[in-house]
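Worked example 4.2. Below are the chains of a multi-component assembly; read each line carefully before continuing.
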Amino acid sequence: MALTLKHLFAVIMLSGAFSLVSAMLFVVMDAVDVAFTEAAVGAGVSTVLMLATMALTVRVQKETKKPILLPLVVVCLVGVLLIYGTLDMPNFGAFDSPAQAHLGSTYLNITYKDMGIPNVVTGILASYRGYDTLGETVVVLTAGLGVILLLSGLKGRKDKE
Amino acid sequence: MDSNLNFIFGHLPYWLFIILMLSGLFIVVSRGNLIKKIVGLNIFQTSVFMFYISIGKMKGGTAPILLDKSANNSAVIYSNPLPHVLILTAIVVGIATTALGLALIIKIREEYDSVEEDDIQKMDQKDLMKYNKKNVLETNS
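Applying the procedure described above to all two chains together yields the following structure tokens:
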């Protein structure tokens, strides 16, 4: 749908709906914290940002003829390689997969003893990986500064011309 | 035969996520509109998140929020919390990059009066040709 639609409003709304559906999928796969974040950030904030961008730029996509064969070939090639890569993976939800064998259960055992928080994901995020989360906020700060710097020159330029 | 079916159903989620990811990649590569490119990038990103989360899923497991004081000797199975932590960080970083990309689009539209890749490239080409001609004239005179 996003391929053929010309009205960007519909495209952006569909992208928001996609985020919401993916949040539900995260709940199904036991990642409730991720689902919260995806619903708030992916379906909420990013949709609003895209709508604001659309309001400041254009609403309807221009009719353009782009070659479709080369992208299709590239995408198919990447897809074949990726699917070939999954052939070695353990089954979905398997108990004996390498991802389950090591650290995951350790954190499940020690988080409550160390922090007293029953939510293991929050415990790891805020404590064991506190510096990483701090770095993440630095990334968000940098991005915010970048957006401000990019957009602060807008009005002045228009007045000058 | 049974093991074959088991293999296919066990890997089907991964393949679906890959197909979703490829549709995002296809939008990024084949569409000229910059806002659509960002939407495609978002789809790409979210499907990678799904793939990561699916690796942490355990059959019959529940969300990693402890029901007892310790997971040590309880009968409850918890899914792996580590991919969740990773993806939480990734989502927030993703929205930061998306915001920056959208700001860049607004700036591009300010300069070029278009958000279509073709128009922008055409204008760049024209500018380049003009610049080259001017340089040639200056070096000749």
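Take a moment to check your reading of the output against the notes. Chain A touches chain B through 87 residues (CB under 8 Å). DSSP finds eight helices and no strands in chain A.
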